[in-house]
Amino acid sequence: MSEPEIKVLLIDDDRDDYLTFESLLSEINARKFSITWASSYDRGLELLQYSIFDICFLNHELGIKSGLDLLSEITTRKLELPYPIVLLNGYGEFDVDLEAIRLGAADCLVRDQVTPYCLDRVIRYTMFRLKQKNELKDRDAQLLIQERLASVGLLASSLAHEIGTPLGVIRGRAEYVSLRHPDDQQIKKDMNILIGQVDRISKLIRSLLNVAKGEVGDSLQQLNLSQVVDEVYSLVSQALQRNGISFINELGNKLDISVLADSEPLQQIFISLFSNSIHAIEAAIESGRSSNHFIRIRSEEVDEIWNISFEDSGCGISSDHLRNLFRPFFTTKGIGGGMGLGLALSYRVLETWKGTMQVESSVGVGTQVKISIPKARR
Ligand SMILES: Nc1ncnc2c1ncn2[C@@H]1O[C@H](COP(=O)(O)OP(=O)(O)O)[C@@H](O)[C@H]1O
Ligand SMILES: [Mg+2]
Fold first, then answer.
1. What CA dihedral angle connects 58, 63, 66 and 70, to 10 degrees?
2. Where in the chain is the domain with CATH 1.10.287?
3. Which percentage of the chain shows pLDDT scores above 90?
4. What residues line ligand 1, using a CB cutoff of 6 Å?
5. Among 2, 11, 100, residue whose Cα is nearest residue 55
6. 275-285: per-residue pLDDT in tens?
7. Ligand 1 pocket mutation, candidates 279, 286, 322, 370, criterion most atoms within 8 A of CB
8. Are 55 and 9 in contact (CB under 8 A)?
């Protein structure tokens, strides 16, 4: 199988240099390249920000500015480029090379000494090293999530213990009151509600424990997702109204959306999503975008999966934050605002059901959370 073409960006303000570089690349037979040439600092910066390449070669001399200036601008703008940058240094000064590496360059070459062979090596090795580095980073992030989930587990088990006892007392008293007033239907009804709610809390804590331990709950069942959404909607409808948010429910033929899940956690996932969207819309309103706010939910059936999209017109999420969303305890809300567990737990719960969650967002426009949940077999 032929290897895919390698997309190379060359930032160099000299046309002759570009032509030389192009001919050097064309002499490498083992790989095919497509070159994009940026002939100025500004054009280079623009391409780095908005296009994707496999590798970038950056000339140190760029008119008034230099390659080092561009490298430091990349750092200041926090552009985390997913590909390596190699500095082409006309004179090979050691201190320039050192500074370039410090600023994140993957390697440096003395321009006049570049041969097709050395270019090929540098391309292969810098791309490989970066790939390895990213894999390590992903593994570290995964480890951190595991560690934090372990602390969620600890929290949940102490919660289960601390809350379990008083809950038991409340439940027992409710049953007792009910028994003492056998003829009072109203009391009986109220006490049953109390008992029902207590059972719900206990169930939720149990699910939280299971999730933290990475176990699939033993109560996976066939659930009607629209019904769950309707129930959650009734809990949040006041907050929606207060903020003038329209809820656009496009779940389609409601009876069809039957998923294999666990009822309390599924409800909790939608409570988290609604509450995040409401917070985000409140933030958008505060920043001056005051009208036409909505939360829209849609469903799509793909083979054995239901894809659900939950979209809002809120403040959006910066790419920096997007990377951290599923980390337990990651929150941008101040004290009392949030625990940073909503998405982390939702993600984890979905994982145990063999579902997934992805988030796409655009700052100042809104956010779309995409969930997939396996269908229940009928
Ligand atoms: N719909 C959304 N719009 C904008 N930001 C969001 C949205 N959902 C989540 N976030 C961001 O992700 C962070 C983590 O969310 P979450 O795990 O639910 O924790 P919490 O809501 O307690 O902060 C939030 O603090 C917020 O910054
Ligand atoms: Mg939340």
1. -70
2. 139-213
3. 63
4. 272, 276-277, 280, 312, 314-315, 317, 321, 325, 330-333, 338-344, 367
5. 11
6. 999 999 999 99
7. 279
8. yes
Q: Are 353 and 261 in contact (CB under 8 A)?
A: yes
Please state the pTM of the whole predicted model.
0.59
pLDDT tens, position by position, 209-238: 766 666 655 678 899 999 999 999 998 999
Residues of the chain with CATH 3.30.565.10: 221-374
What ligand is nearest to the CA atom of residue 282? 1
Which ligand lies nearest the alpha carbon of 324? 1
Class of CATH domain 6-114 = alpha beta
- Ligand located closest to 340 CA: 1
- Per the structure block, which two tokens stand in for 112? 């006049």
The residue whose CA has the least distance to atom 8 of ligand 1 is 276
Residue 46 has pLDDT above 60, yes or no: yes
Residue 316 alpha carbon, nearest atom of ligand 1 = 4
Any idea what the Cα angle at residue 131 is, between residues 128 and 135, rounded to 5°?
140
Which ranges in the chain are annotated with CATH 3.40.50.2300?
Answer: 6-114
Residue closest to 88 by CA, chosen among 115, 53, 125, 58: 58
User: What class, spelled out in words, does domain 139-213 have in CATH?
Assistant: mainly alpha
Q: Give the position, in ligand 1's atom list, of the atom nearest the Cα of 277.
A: 1
User: Which atom in ligand 1 lies closest to the alpha carbon of residue 341?
Assistant: 17
Please classify residue 3 by burial: count the beta carbons closer than 10 Å to its beta carbon, then call 0-12 exposed, 13-18 middle and 19+ buried.
Answer: exposed
Q: CB neighbours of 299 closer than 8 A, spacing ≥ 6?
A: 225, 250, 251, 252, 257, 306, 307, 308, 309
